[in-house]
Amino acid sequence: MDRETQICGLGFYVPDKILTNDDLEKLVDTSDEWITTRTGIKKRHIVEDEACSDLALVAAQNALQDAHLEPQDLTHIITATFTPDSYIPSAACVLQKKLGIKDIPSCDINAACTGFIYALDLARGFCALYADAKVLVVASEVVTSRVNFNDRSTCVLFGDGAGAVILSNSGEDGAVLEDVLLKADGSLGELLTVKGGGSAYPLTFGQKADEDFFVQMQGQTVFKHAVRSMSNIALEILKKNNLSVEDINLLIPHQANNRIIEAVGKKLEFPPEKIFVNVQDYGNTSAASVPIALAEAKQKGRIAPGDRVLLVAFGGGFTWGAALVKF
Ligand code: UT7
Q1: pLDDT per residue over 109-142, tens digit each?
Q2: Catalytic annotation, pick one of 52, 113, 127, 155
Q3: Domain range 178-195+212-326, CATH class
Q4: CB 162 within 8 A of CB 40
């Protein structure tokens, strides 16, 4: 690639309403002790009457402000989500309207929890093609719209939120997006599904949604693949760039479960103090988890100028990916 792609703005947003483990104890047969020891999650933010594009809008406005840009400066919008406002129009088109702009290409992509990393690579492609590109990448999820609150094995895991970045070729103080690596293995698709309403599982008029309409997951198997895929792709992107674990100042993994994060850290021999974790506050926000963590890590002073950050995620599909960012 000829041009250097930069991240010139970061932002995130989570809805105000908080659902604690104690609240969940009142909904299903679970306990704060079980959720905390098995996942590390203490609370998650959930929407009341906001849709995907509403969360995306605030995250995008925060990223625009951080980049000292106006919505009119944007050239493309990519929204990573598996919970768009509707099938049509896409969340990206609804977001475009809410930003008060027109004409620029806007679309959604779905790579489940890896969606943000996938969108980064697509945005990097736009930046390579168009010298003046200013691409808004926003990962926004109302995961709770596809969570079965009768299923204790999944409903304790997820939260809602959005994270956004702006990519360009010309940001003077921008962080350099050094590389992105993506993978997928469709043969593992059945491990994590949201089937209902898709064309292979169509709803008929008047039919009530059953459990197929919501997230279903083979937790233990997903756990194993998560650890393996994130560790392997982290090592692969480091090797590809002639880097080692010592060259990374902060690892930002997909925030699904603290035990998965710890296992990845151990496999990579990464010191825990160099791993950013906020799953305790937000739960698993799917595609939004990595950009929320990235923006929060920056906000909290965990990333200094010159630091190299490794982003790594996995998700349904099965998909996984990694990105290197030099601040
Ligand atoms: O973005 C991708 C998202 N996916 C993931 O990150 C999921 C990866 N998997 C996991 O994080 C873990 O597998 C879970 C946290 C989902 C489950 O933890 P686990 O240690 O694998 O538990 P398990 O599924 O083996 O279940 C152990 C026990 C079972 O009871 P029995 O059969 O031993 O009597 C479950 O029924 O825990 C029970 N259980 C619960 N108990 C209290 C399952 N969910 C709950 C719950 N509260 N919420």
Answers
A1: 999 999 999 999 999 999 999 999 999 999 999 9
A2: 113
A3: alpha beta
A4: no
